[in-house]
Write a structure and sequence with these properties.
The chain is 9% helix and 36% strand. It has helices at residues 20-33, 51-58, 117-129, 131-140, 331-335, 568-572, 606-609, 669-672; strands spanning 39-46, 77-84, 90-96, 101-107, 147-153, 165-174, 189-197, 211-217, 264-267, 270-273, 276-283, 287-297, 300-316, 328-329, 355-362, 368-389, 396-412, 415-424, 429-437, 442-443, 454-458, 461-464, 466-476, 484-492, 508-514, 522-523, 532-541, 548-554, 580-584, 621-631, 641-653. The longest helix has 14 residues, at 20-33. Belongs to the copper/topaquinone oxidase family.
């Protein structure tokens, strides 16, 4: 990972992403080893070292006698996925960057790698030049020069069963002018494109490389029309297309200032803030990855998580008709969060005093390209960390919290996802997804209704119902490598009212169930019992509870997958069957829907890995947490969608011996810059509103510099003491 235009001359950390120079070196080594091949470099990325070796390097594992952390050798390797031009065969290569050699080369039959941005642009150009596509547009009476294609992964179609041939489809739109919102003008047909063929097709005369092989019409439902007239009314959100008279004029600036600088430090890709230390990395598929999270608890550095990332996501749509049934985008496995990441704008995407990290990836020729400012690091106010007011004395003690934010934003066609890791001063780690961007839309005939499967968000524009599922791969290391998971359910005491055990009927208890194996550890959320899961270390005991220390997984966004068992979506996104899975650690098990997700028929990933029951009690485990939202679009989501949020938290649960935020100092008005908005001496202005005044000229006891947020307030007059 690069930072700005600086050249980092230090020896890379074993988890640092490949530099631009290493990407070039990797491509050159592969070409030199395979000079006879015409190669497409699908992806070039760091091959992460095995976990056991990294534990030794980081000092967690017992080092072999006579060794030390300083002489643990970690190989520097690149992992390369390659497509051979013309024949489309797929290969995996491992390149040793220590000795500049090709360490391995394997042909992987019957798979299709991730779709790249270059491929998307090539396919769009191919579609727009196709005669069948142009004929469709002529019949619709629209200008081909204003037609656009959003290439999508094909998903799975029975008549094109298997992954021997690389296929893409496309959703078609129109624009009235440059930068017009194309999703206000959806078209009624879908092309299917064949790109590279496998050798099994070499003598098939019906197969031509890089060709539109089908154009599918989407007929209106319950309509007198055979084709809709494409809606041409504009629905734009960019400011230059909005009426200036409609824009709000009563918004005053908010500035986030840190006059003494930030409270975090950065060394390469290692970040230290408050009592946390962790490493970040970035790759084409997961995007941002968090490594080796530790917390300084007094004189003890306590490990929390070895690795955390978004492993996969899927967006299944509800309409069972063709082509909508195959719209279930895997934005990690088919497109790559890293490849889709935004370059973030200072003061817009992130606010305050910011540190950025660049990201390095590769094009089809093996050349590096850099996404500047791909990762944002900043602090923000978190509101109250804790507070108590003594109702007798009126003494209020207030401690405001802050959090460290590490974030990226990705755009996958119409949708944008802002992805945030939050590190809090009480030991809590949170993850949040903010989904925004534009709805996927379809066109309706003038008399057509979407029925049960969508919402009309503007005349003739349907926004289909869909879901968003995200699965996180959490590799815990709670006070050590071997961990277990408890399922905790709160429920009423079973004994009836009036019984000796529950005389007044108010009793309820929390029941814990140890998830001992991979069968038991396939679990769903249960709001009726306020269910949560707790990661524990059976070998680390809290001195007060005399029970294992732990971290609690809380998630309020756990919709079920509504696609039925046996459906294409359910087979391909098997991870969404359950909210929680726990597996034994395996270096090769990284992606919940399988490594080659594109065009696969399903069954790979978590369903395959858990076919054989394995122990996950007091083991090196991985937790897979699935969460998300069910999106029934609203008119208010168009033409651009306000953020829809979901996420989860990892909260210490009997991990510490007291509130770990007790040592966070109170703030004062001098440090936080708070002041009264209006002069209390002048209540109302001529127009009946409060008069704003110059804050520097205001004189009020609560605004004096150095005044504490936690001083003694006048004791309240209370008729009774109540909680």
């Amino acid at each position: 990972m690069s930072d700005g235009a600086k050249t980092d001359l230090r020896k890379p950390h074993p988890l640092d992403p490949l530099s631009a120079e290493e990407v070039v070196a990797t491509a050159n080594i592969v070409r030199s080893a395979k000079p006879e091949m015409d190669i497409i470099f699908n992806t070039i990325t760091l091959k992460e070292p095995p976990k056991k070796l990294m534990l030794k390097y980081l000092g967690y594992d017992h080092l072999e006698e006579g060794t030390s952390k300083s002489n643990v050798t970690v190989p520097r390797e690149a992992f390369v996925v390659i497509i051979e031009k013309e024949v489309g065969m797929v290969y995996e290569a491992i390149v040793s960057l220590d000795d500049n050699s090709l360490a391995s080369w394997i042909h992987i039959p019957g798979v299709q790698p991730i779709i790249t941005a270059e491929e998307v642009l090539t396919v769009e150009a191919l579609i727009l030049q196709d005669e069948a596509v142009q004929a469709e547009c002529r019949e619709l009476g629209i200008d081909m020069n204003n037609v656009y294609a959003d290439p999508w992964a094909i998903g799975h179609i029975e008549k094109y069963k298997g992954a021997d041939r690389r296929l893409l489809t496309a959703l078609m739109y129109y624009r009235n002018f440059e930068d017009d919102n194309q999703y206000a003008h959806p078209l009624d047909f879908v092309p299917v494109v064949g790109t590279y063929a496998q050798l099994t097709y070499a003598h098939d005369l019906d197969v031509t490389l890089m060709k539109v092989i089908e154009v599918e019409r989407i007929p209106p439902k319950s309509s007198k029309f055979t084709r809709p007239v494409i809606p041409m009314e504009n629905h734009n959100f960019l400011p230059e297309f909005l009426d200036p008279k409609t824009m709000r004029t009563d918004i005053k600036p908010i500035q986030v200032l840190q006059p003494e600088g930030v409270s975090f430090t950065v060394d390469g890709n290692q970040i230290a803030w408050q009592k946390y230390k962790f490493q970040i990395s970035f790759n084409y598929r997961e995007g941002l990855v968090i490594h080796n999270v530790t917390y300084q608890d007094g004189d003890k550095l306590r490990p929390l998580f070895f690795r955390m990332s978004m492993s996969e996501m899927v967006v299944p749509y509800a309409d069972p008709e063709s082509p909508h049934y195959r719209k279930h985008a895997f934005d990690v496995g088919e497109y790559g969060l890293g490849l889709c990441t935004n370059s973030l704008a200072l003061g817009c995407d992130c606010l305050g005093t910011i540190h950025y990290f660049d990201a390095v990836m590769n094009d089809h020729e093996g050349r590096p390209f850099i996404v500047p400012q791909a990762i944002c690091l900043h602090e923000e106010d978190r509101g109250l960390l804790f507070k108590h007011t003594d109702y007798r004395s009126g003494r209020a003690h207030v401690v405001r919290g802050r959090r460290l934010v590490v974030s990226q934003i990705v755009t996958v066609a119409n949708y944008d996802y802002a992805l945030y890791w939050y590190f809090n001063q009480d030991g809590t780690i949170e993850y949040e997804v903010k989904a925004t961007g534009e709805l996927n839309t379809t066109v309706l005939a003038e008399d057509e209704d979407p029925g049960d499967f969508g919402t009309i968000v503007a005349p003739q524009i349907n926004a289909p119902h869909h879901q968003h599922f995200f699965v996180m791969r959490l590799d815990p290391m709670i006070d050590g490598v071997n961990n277990s998971v408890l399922q905790v359910d709160t429920m009423p005491v079973e004994a009836p009212v009036g019984s000796p055990e529950n005389r007044w009927g108010n009793g309820f208890v929390a029941k814990q169930k140890l998830l001992e194996d991979t069968d038991a550890a396939q679990a769903d959320a249960n709001t009726a019992t306020s269910r949560f899961w707790k990661i524990i270390n059976p070998s680390s005991i809290n001195p007060y509870t005399r029970k294992p220390v732990g971290y609690k997984i809380s998630c309020m966004h756990t919709p079920p997958l509504f696609a039925k068992p046996g459906s294409i979506v359910e087979r391909r996104a098997g991870f969404a069957r359950k909210n929680l899975w726990v597996t034994q650690y395996d270096d090769e098990q990284m992606f919940a829907a399988g490594f080659y997700c594109n065009q696969n028929e399903g069954g790979d990933g978590l369903p395959e890995w858990t076919k054989t029951k394995k122990n996950v009690n007091n083991e090196d485990i991985v937790i897979w947490l699935t969460f998300g939202v069910t999106h029934l679009p609203r008119v208010e989501d168009f033409p651009v969608m306000p953020v829809e949020t979901c996420g989860f938290s990892l909260k210490p649960c009997n991990f510490f011996n007291a509130n770990p935020g007790l040592d966070v100092p109170s703030q004062s008005k001098h440090t936080n810059g708070s002041m009264l908005a209006f002069d209390p001496a002048v209540k109302y202005g001529k127009k009946g509103g409060l008069n704003p005044v110059d804050p520097l000229k205001m004189h009020h006891p609560s605004n004096e510099q150095g005044g504490s947020c936690c001083g003694s307030n006048p004791a309240p007059v209370a008729s009774q003491a109540s909680a």
